[in-house]
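Quick one, tokens below:
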């Protein structure tokens, strides 16, 4: 049990996987991701027009941070609403698929071709078109310079 917990804590989602979403809003979750996510996890609106996927432990941590934001701050209320109103707990079926709620599918512009991307503690679900725009590395040298200002030296 301790070994499993230790592995889970140190697990980091990474990689890029191309799949399709079917007409019934079902999406296959890559087996490497399913192993870490388990049979049930949370999907919510993400930033940049994608969806964020969290395992239940990471979601609980995120919820606690959201609860800690001041209710008197309008931006904080908007931020909390954005993530919680669109959040859905989803279950993996026997074929390794989840049912993406229509509101989330529409938000992310998912039509057919979908890209799932591991981003450390979460997974992002993108429409292929939006992913191609967002993953453009044209300005990576400039971005890298800014990351060093945030303490990330390469």
């Amino acid at each position: 049990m301790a070994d499993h917990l230790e592995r889970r804590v140190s697990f980091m989602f990474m990689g890029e996987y191309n799949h399709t979403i079917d007409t019934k809003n079902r999406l296959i979750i890559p087996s490497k991701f399913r192993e870490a996510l388990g049979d049930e996890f949370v999907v919510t609106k993400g930033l940049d027009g994608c969806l964020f996927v969290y395992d239940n432990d990471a979601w609980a941590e995120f919820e606690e941070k959201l609860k800690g934001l001041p209710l008197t701050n309008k931006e904080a209320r908007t931020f909390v609403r954005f993530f919680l109103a669109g959040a859905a707990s989803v279950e993996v079926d026997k074929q390794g698929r989840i049912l993406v709620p229509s509101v989330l599918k529409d938000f992310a512009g998912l039509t057919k071709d979908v890209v799932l991307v591991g981003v450390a503690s979460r997974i992002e679900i993108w429409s292929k078109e939006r992913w191609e725009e967002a993953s453009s590395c044209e300005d990576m040298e400039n971005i890298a310079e800014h990351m060093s200002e945030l303490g990330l030296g390469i």
